[in-house]
Each structure stands twice: as C-alpha cells, then as structure tokens.
Amino acid sequence: MPPLKSGWSRLAVSCAVVAMATAVTGPACADPAPSFEALLERIGLTPTIMEADALLDAAEARIRQARVRPNPELGLEAENAFGTGPFQGYDNAETTLSLSQDLELWGRRSARVGVARAEAGTAALRRDLADVEAASRLALVYAEAEAAERRFQLAEEALTVTIADTRAALILVEEGREPLLRGIQGETEAAAARATLDEAQAERDAAFARLTAVAMLPTPVTSIDGGLLDRTPAGVTVAVGEAPEVQVAEAERAAAESRIEVERVRARPDVTASVGIRRYEAEDATALTFGVSMPLPLFDRNRGAIDAARAEFRAAEARLIGARQEAEADRNAAEARLRASASRVAAADAGVTAAEDAYRLSRIGFEAGRISQLELRSSRAALINARNAAVDARLARVRAEIELARLQGRAPFGTQQ
Q1: In 93-171, at which residue ranges do the beta strands (DSSP E only) sit?
Q2: What is the pLDDT of residues 135-164, one digit of tens each?
Q3: pLDDT recorded at residue 416
C-alpha cells in the first residue's frame, strides 16, 4: 500500500503544478486588434498600395508629357567669313538666324498620347488589383491569427479537461478500483497536453506578430475580439464582372495595339519647317529664309519595329485569352469550395455537439465505474479533435471566401475598401 500512496501523491503534485502553469499562460494585459473593417480603411498605407499609387502617378505624368509638342530649334550660321581673298575678315560674311519646328504630321502626337493613356489605364487597373490583393492578404492573416488564438484556447481547455480526468483516475487508483498504471498514463497525457498548449501559444504569438506587421500596427496585437471565422461569406450572391487579372490583361492588350499605330506613324518621315533672317554684310542688307526638310525613307522604314509591335500585340491577346480561361475556371472552383466549406462547417459543428455529449456521458460513466479510462480517453480525444476540426473548417471557409472575393475584384465578406 505505501508505494501506491506515494505514487498517488506524486501524480497529484504533478497535476497541481500543471494546473498552476496553465493559469499563468495567458498574457497579463491584452491589446486587442482593431476590427477587420478598421484595418481595411488603413490599407492605403501599406507599401504595395503606395507603390501602385506612385506608378499610377508616373503613368498620368507621362500623359501630360505626351501632350507636349517638341521644342523648336534655334540656329545661328555664318558663311563666307574669315577666309582668303575677298572673304578675309567678316566684311563679306552672310549670317543666318533660323528657327525650326517639327510639324508632327501624320498623327504623331495623337498616337503618342494614345499609348500614354492606355498605359495609364493599365496602371489604374493594377492599382485596383493591388487593393484587392492587399485586402485578401489582410483578411487571410487576420483569420489565421483568430484561428491560432482559438486553437490556443482549445489547447487550454484540453489541458484542463485532461487534468480533471487524471484527477478522477487518481481517485479511483487510491480507492483501488484502478491500477497505478492508469495514474501514470494520466500524468503522461497531461504532459502531452501541456506540450500541445506550448506549441499552440507559439503559433498564436507568431500569427499575432504577422498580423501586426501586415496591418502596420504601432503596438503588437495580443488578442482578437470578434473576427472573420464566424462571419457568413458574401460568396456567390455578389454580382460579378471580369476578374481583375482579366481587366489588366485587356488593358495591356489595348496598350499593345496602340503601340502598333505609333510604330506605323514613325515609319513616315518627320517634316520640319524653318524660317529665318539672313544678314549680308557686303551689301548691308537682310532677307528672310524659309524652308521645309524631311528625311528620305530609302533604307529605314521602321518595318522591324512595326513587326515587333504586332508580335507583342499577339502575345498580349494570347495572355488575355489565357487569363479569361483561367479566371473562369478559378471562379468556378472557388464557388464550389465555398459551398463545400459551408457544408463542412455545419458538419463540424454537429460533430462538436455530438462529441461534447459523448464526453459528458463517458465522464459520468467513468466516475460511476461503468466504463474504463480508455473509453474516457477516447471520447476526450474525439472531443478535442472535433473542436479543432471546427476551427479548421471555419478557416477553410474564410480562405474560400477570400479567393472568390479576389477573383470577383472585391474585399472579402462584402466589406468596402
């Protein structure tokens, strides 16, 4: 009998120590994260959005620059000066001051402006796509942090339940209704539950750190009050248009088509008009000069650049076709995953309810001595797994909603950006 009593005392002390450690696991002062909507309003401060804004500003500046006409050229030319014979010195010199201007015929300026506008349109759509992707990333990190916090809370509950079961087993060991082995097994299970709790705490802290960094929060997040896991997704009820990637591909195709016209215009000669004043020193007289000049397109007709622009247009058209096909397939898959995730959440919740009832009945039967500790352990493990599966199902539903929202070009859960 003494070995039994000393073993029981050792296990009781061990369980008490574990319980005390569990009580001090949580943070002393929680700093809850702002709501997802509040963080979404600050998304314009993220580096990716700031980069997209800067690129859009650059594209709009190129439109203004494309509208500007080329500068005129001012020329000064002296002839018949500082030579030999009658051209010694500057007395018989002819001095011409001229002003030349590229006329930009054949629609050069309008073609140049058209390309700049098409590229600015692409930059604007890329800015919208950056908004959608940033919102999707924020939603995913937020949901993962919330799921990590729930898993940590479930691990705490699992440790508490394991300790309670172990204490109940120790009582039966003391009464001689169970062998000492059952108590030792309970201690092992409590240690394993403690290790699981430590791992869940590390995952929670890492998820909070990621959320703090992605949301660019000034203070670290230590808790989440209400998140995305329990929200009903907007899903397929939202009216959809073209996916953002398809819109960008369409804009790139339009820009590539406008570059063909630019290269065609460049194949035509530049026409330059000039006007000037010529001074004749010998006669002490002046006269006007004027003229028109243009290169002869004998060798360079810009055919290679035109062919290259056409090839780039075909490539852009092929990318557009591929983007449409991929977006349609991805959207159908995302809608199917969202519907399946909703069913999975309902099944997981039903599983949690059944597992809780099964564990409650097992605990009553164990304390009454009608079922064994192995059956109690099995029902407890089923309850822990069911609760974690419910968290996983909700996180999968959030991910399906995020993917579908990205393909539909909106923020997740119907929130406004």
Answers
A1: 94-102
A2: 999 999 999 999 999 999 999 998 988 888
A3: 52
Amino acid letter, residue 9: S
Strand partners, 277: 97, 288
- CA-to-CA distance for 158 and 377, rounded, in angstroms? 12
DSSP 136-154: HHHHHHHHHHHHHHHHHHH
E strand residue ranges, 281-319 = 285-293
- According to the model, what pLDDT value does residue 87 have? 78
pLDDT tens by residue, 322-367: 999 999 899 999 999 999 999 999 999 999 999 999 988 888 887 7
Does the CA dihedral 315-317-320-326 come out positive or negative? negative
Q: What is the pTM of this model?
A: 0.80
Question: Count of H helices and E strands in the chain?
Answer: 8, 4
Structure-token match 């003494």, residue found: 2
Please, what's the b/e burial string for 134-154 (b: 16 or more CB within 10 A of its CB; e: otherwise)? bbbbbbbbbbbbbbbbbbbeb
Query: What are phi and psi for residue 288, nearest 5 degrees?
Result: -85, 150
Domain boundaries, the chain: 2-69+105-260+302-327, 71-103+268-297
CATH number for the domain whose boundaries are 2-69+105-260+302-327: 1.20.1600.10
From 3.30.70, 3.30.420, 2.20.200, 2.60.40, which CATH number describes the 71-103+268-297 domain?
2.20.200
* pLDDT tens-digit series, residues 205-263: 999 999 999 988 888 888 887 789 988 887 665 555 678 999 999 999 999 999 999 99
The rounded radius of gyration (Å) of the Cα atoms in the chain is: 39
- 219 contact partners, CB below 8 Å, separation of at least 6: 31, 212
Q: Is 217 in a helix, a strand, or coil?
A: coil
